[in-house]
Amino acid sequence: MFDRFQFDKKNENERERQLESLQKRLYEAIAAHNNIREAQISHLPTEEEIKEFEKINIPKVGRNAIEVEEELMNYVFNKQILAQHPRFFSFVSSAVSPYSIAGSILTDIFNANAGSFNMSPCGGIIEEKICAWMGSLAGYKADTCSGIFLSGGSISTMSAIIAARTNKLNEFDFPKGVAYLSEQAHSSVRKALRMLGFRNDQVIIIDTDDDYKMDVKSLEEAIIKDKEEGRIPFLVVGTLGTTNTGSIDPLSEIGDIAKKYNLWFHVDGAYGASSLISKKHRNSSSGIEKSDSLTWDSHKWLMQTYSCSTLLVKNKQTLLDAFVEHPEYLEDVSSTDHIDGWDKGPEMSRPNRAIKLWFTLQATGTNLLEEMIDYTFNNAIIVENELNKRKNWEIISKPSCGTINFRYAKEGMSPEELNELNLDITKEINESGFAYIVTTTLKGKKAIRMCMINVNSTEEDIISTIDLLDKIAIRLTSKI
Fold first, then answer.
1. CA 73 to chain centre
2. Residue 217: its pLDDT value, please?
């Protein structure tokens, strides 16, 4: 029989033990981060360790909590790729602010439910203020725009598509709706459309130009063709900072086409929207103010812990039209003066993901964030300059939003040999533990991609990494 007294007593004792242990872990984590440059980037478990951990099952009788914690440290947290490492140049990964960590810990400890404004009013104000600030940077009017913090760019984009579908299509016309995105659009856009029931023929992929930006002429031609065939174009997705190349689609021209043909214009700025903070670089996003919605991930360029994504809309009513439900069991906690979180997105109960960004903005200030973004933009230019000093390196895509693509292209080698060579170069540097870099494929060419948005990356980190890539390339080609 369940003993409430014993259960409460055990929890009380465990909290005290965990507090002591977690304080120790926190100090260890801070010390490790302060020396992260000396750490090996990839420190994954061995096959034997993976098999050993797989033997641990869900127990019927509880185990010693400290023993469980030790297992997590030994098998999980100490055996992973350090994406915050200054020489981790893959994906779209940045340093993490200590203020974000502090805000994240506090949010978890106090576990406020951000679904309802009335359950944590000042927490709700934090989310409203940040969304208004972000929206104003995108050219939206602060008094009419709105937004919500969600788990990531994938869910934010899917929520935007739901709003677009509700706004532009009668539910009986869903099978006729057509969405347009470039061949460089993030895979989550296609996935979201598929998850929402759109067929492959309802998703039109638009070609890109030599700079990997959406070809607006092809976009308009596709829209006209679909309308002539009786289909209903309802959505176009432009990208502010593509994952592959950091390219920015011609947002102003796309916005004009969307308005001309009555399409919802969504901008996937999950990666690149943070550039709006920079006065020097925000002009590259000209036309974003013509969009109806925008995705912005702070866990990318703004040094936030996972996860911290924001969906912004120009007109707050569009979110309400898409997501409002009023069940009787929420009447007593629903707000009349503010919009509840559960009325702006797909989640009901949810953590307040905005608090850690608020903590960072308050402690850091926007001026420092602007300097940081400008600094990381320049880091990709340093990569380009260093490659131009060395023989046989070819720039595939020039620096954009801190990302650059290149390859080693020694004369006389076939396209297949070059692709294999560049794969081998990245494999060897990753195995060294000194740096971590992945490849991508652009117009049939295997390219080495470096994303330079980690503010902790120094010029020395960059030069030493390029030096090592060059040495590996020379040595591998000497054997051919």
1. 26
2. 98
pLDDT in tens, 49-106: 999 999 999 999 999 888 999 999 999 999 999 999 999 999 998 899 999 999 999 9
Cα atoms found within 13 Å of the Cα of residue 83, Cβ hemisphere only: 17
Q: d(Cα 438, Cα 7) in Å, to the nearest integer? A: 49
Token duo for residue 39: 């750490």
144 backbone dihedrals φ, ψ, rounded to 5°: -115, -20
The neighbour count for residue 318, using CB atoms within 10 Å, is 22
Q: How confident is the model over 310-328, as pLDDT tens digits?
A: 999 999 999 999 999 988 8
Q: From its phi and psi, is residue 178 left (phi > 0), alpha (psi between -120 and 50) or beta? A: beta
Q: What is the DSSP letter of 444?
A: T
**Phi then psi for 162, rounded to 5 degrees?**
-60, -45
3-state secondary structure of 266: strand
φ/ψ of residue 235, rounded to 5: -150, 135
Q: CA-CA distance, 214 to 181, in Å (whole number)?
A: 8
Separation of alpha carbons 276 and 241, rounded Å: 11
Q: Please give the Cα distance from 162 to 273 (Å, whole number).
A: 21
By the 10 Å C-beta count (0-12 exposed, 13-18 middle, 19+ buried), 285 is classed as buried
> Distance between CA 349 and CA 326 in Å, rounded?
15
CB 248 within 8 A of CB 239: yes
What is the chain's length?
480
Asked whether the CA dihedral 243, 187, 270, 40 is positive or negative, the reply is negative
Which is nearest to 268 in space by CA: 179, 194, 201, 199? 179
Q: How far apart are the first and last CA of the chain?
A: 73
